[in-house]
Amino acid sequence: MSHLSNLPAQRLAPTPSLRDKALEILRQAIVTGQIAPGELYSAAALAKELGVSVSPVREAMLTLVNEGALEVVRNRGFRIPEFAEQDLAEVFDLRLLLEVPSMGQLAGMDLKDAQPELERLVVATEETVHDATEFLARDRDFHLYLLALRGNERLVDIVRVLRDQTRLYGLGPEANRQLRVEAAHEHRDLVDKILHGDAAGAEDVMRRHLEHIQQDWYGGAPASTRHGA
User: How many separate helices (H) and strands (E) can be counted in the chain?
Assistant: First the structure.
């Protein structure tokens, strides 16, 4: 009989797998528009570009298929699925339901230890408004970090999938710089409200932030307007 207690502890230390690393890289590429709608991608070609074997990349791509961020084109490869206006509306409705009350709940928490990181993330978005791709990546970091402070990993995963499904930041370099400037200002306002314990104010900023993204970046009516709220 083997005695597991005698095994060196370091053998149990978790390390990111190649599949996990590939998954994170591909998610980021979708969000920033490096993997573009309408283009076909093969696991073999992406694996060669990443310098790894095909298997972990294919596994990562199939994970993204399950999350709705990619779709399989039989015998041809993978691509980003087209989203209709109704699809986008449903995603925004879900984000309003999940993220708005979460910001109010954060305002009731002691986030003193998180304040330096929050400031760093806000500054990162402010300093990258001139570069759409970099801003979109930092914007993603900011929002997912905020949600992670709630201590609910499933919430973070669900919202991340919703954002990635619709490439919420993925307007590419042509996106209006002024919209990025306004979004960065809203980030700072949101953090200010949260750190000062203003739950109603934090929820209001988050709601307006989401509606600005939907209306200004995508040209759709805010969910609250469509549903008569």
Answer: 10, 2
Cα atoms found within 13 Å of the Cα of residue 30, Cβ hemisphere only: 30
CB atoms within 10 A of CB 71: 12
Which residue's structure tokens are 């109603």? 200
Residue pLDDT, tens place only, 153-172: 999 999 988 887 776 444 44
Query: Which amino acid appears at position 167 of this protein?
Result: R
Lowest mean pLDDT among 112-116, 220-224, 225-229: 225-229
C-alpha distances out from residue 226 to 168, 212, 218, Å: 19, 14, 15
Q: Are 169 and 32 in contact (CB under 8 A)?
A: yes
pLDDT digits (tens, 9 = 90+) for 81-132: 887 778 888 888 999 999 999 999 999 999 999 999 999 999 999 999 998 7
Question: What HEC string does 161-207 produce?
Answer: HHHHHCCCCCCCCCCCHHHHHHHHHHHHHHHHHHHCCCHHHHHHHHH
Tokens of 44: 């073999």
Rounded to 5°, angle at Cα 171 from 209 and 27:
90
pTM above 0.85, yes or no: no
